[in-house]
Amino acid sequence: MPIHYDEFTQIFHLQAGQSSYAMQVSDEGYLCHLYYGKHISRDDLSYLNETGRGASFSPNPADGSPTLDTRLQEFPGAGVGDFRQSACGVRATNGAYAVELKYISHNILAGQKPALPGLPAYYLNSAADGDTLEITMEDALLGLHVKLYYCAFAGENIITRWAVAENHGAATLSLENLQSACVEFPRMNFDMVSLHGAWNRERHVERHPLFHGSTVIASNRGSSSHQLNPFAVLCDKHTTEHTGQAYGVQLVYSGNFKIEAQVNQMHCTRLCVGINPDNFAWQLQPGESFTTPEAVLSYSDEGIGGLSRTLHRLTRNNLVRGEWKQKLRPIKINSWEAAYFDFNADKLVAFAREAAKTDVDLLVMDDGWFGARSDDKTSLGDWFVNEEKLGCTLKELAERVNAEGLDFGIWFEPEMISPESELYRKHPDWALHIPDRGRSLGRRQCVINMALPEVQDYLFDCISAVLKQANITYLKWDFNRNLTEVFCHSLPANQQGEVGHRFYLGLYDLCERLTTAFPHILFESCSGGGGRFDLGMLYYMPQTWTSDNTDPVDRLKIQWGTSMAYPLATMGAHVAAPYGHGRANKIPYRASVATTGAFGYELDPTKLTVEQIDEMRAANAAFREVQQLVTTGDFYRLISPFEGRTCAWQFVSPDKSEALVQCFVVLSEHNEWDLRVYPQGLDADAQYELDCGAVLHGNTIMHAGLRLQDFGGRDFAHRNIYLKKLV
Ligand code: DGJ
Fold this sequence. Notes:
With about 725 residues, the chain is an alpha+beta fold. Strands 6, 7, 8, 9, 11, 12, 14, 15, 19 and 20 form a ten-stranded antiparallel beta sheet that branches. The two termini are about 40 Å apart. Helix 7 runs parallel beside helix 8 (about 500-515) and helix 11 packs parallel to helix 12 (about 610-630).
């Protein structure tokens, strides 16, 4: 049993894979943190529960018990003597802002994991996957219960956590902060690794030391954002990609979030993760409850790479759902960079015909097929096929594409409304706006208020109607601006702080309804590229368009950074036109970079030369040979594109029987040595045959490395090395 409670010491000991987590109910009833890290035995850890000596500037609670200001706590309240960030903040009807949570009971749910109502969450495939601990805390004065959930996964170093606030009192409580998790560390000698970015430059890796005070990774943009991803790592100073301890923190959520690592005067670190409390307040009526999104805590003593592989496995096995979870994804060709808004059915069918020659599986009709849309100024919300533009019905178009041997997919941007649209003329109130205040535009569009049930129903009905018109097997779900003027006309003044979260409850509900109604369709989420690459969207849609930047050199960094937190199989990765986008790399280099993910094309195949069509065909054949390995293998980052002019990474099959090493030169240097690369994760004692015919032991390959002859010295060189274990 991975969750154990000792009645005598009142210590909870959780074991998740090879990691341990321990906490203790103190004599006064506070839930104090004891330990998180590498697996330890179930010893009496009471000695770790330090109360501190206290000082007049760290006040004692009214009963004289030790100060909360310096204690390590599982779920700190607010306003009663702990001056650090809190995990829970409530304003009572008299305006007082104070919460003091004490333990009242617990429950161990063996082999179970309760669902989070209306929210995406990890799931157990069977009872053997994990157990959940439910601890109930109480602020008796407020009548507030907070249930803390800890799901310990048996086979992975992962504990997921969430909290549920329940109002057991007679008065309404204004819940102004409820974090998903708080973890305390009795030290501060950590670096934080986080993923920052912008449109076209998503998830670049940044590493910086913690300091006294707070390091905050957050979004208040109404989405998980291009700018900062809901993911961070705390690692030891000497931790590398392959060695050392690392703690990961992540949120299964697509809206405003905050990850804060705060170091206090005792040089201890408090790490909180949850919905961003900025402009959040939830009116909790008597008898009601509020559930936070789920947080993911992960641990590795095999460096940041080990942490990523753990996260990849859990997300592939216990988050992604539906028919496409296990299926190899189609190779697709998307119309966006090929035609932008300038297409009709004949043009799309011509794309399909040419692409079919290269063994592509799916043609996607991107933005521009609906309403009166011929540029980005109009028609979002008018989800009716523009048959005049296409020159035929949707059914006929799909049939023509199918006749060329390709499946057919379509683009939507459901959460938006163009001021220039039929829908806006009918329902101007459906756009997010504040009365009497101007409506900010982003890409000339407003955001539709997903918190309104009538909006959810409208979208369900018209998207379903389109999907039923034709043989559609793929849907790209776009989201091209962030939320402003976040206000809902149907809610009273004191509930406006709920709108940001209600937006996501509405979106998630719509996603659930549509993915249930159309289980055969492969959904891919997108937000102007990778502006909403998060675990929340991945629960509903098994892949995400990684970036609008399809330049292969830029993609090395974007995909490297994204792989810190997300499995490769979830990353949309396309080969863009060698005649246009980004640097002048040829198709083989572009295809090699895109091999890392859900593979496809962003180009007009009718503009390619015969030689380029041959390259495309060869790239598709090569991708299919390694697709299973890339989709389910363990990923090792070998040479960082952030640190030099080369990049290398590797996939190893779970049974270590095969591996693929991919190496890329960005810019070469004169008179340099051959590149050496040190693959990882092989069976040390086994022999592997390389595709050049050489046979080497796993230990030789990993420790002495491979020497890539005739590889450097050329800009944009690339090489794929396939290794097969000899039996
Ligand atoms: C942004 C997406 O990232 C692109 O791939 C494309 O779908 C455009 N939107 C369409 O407007």
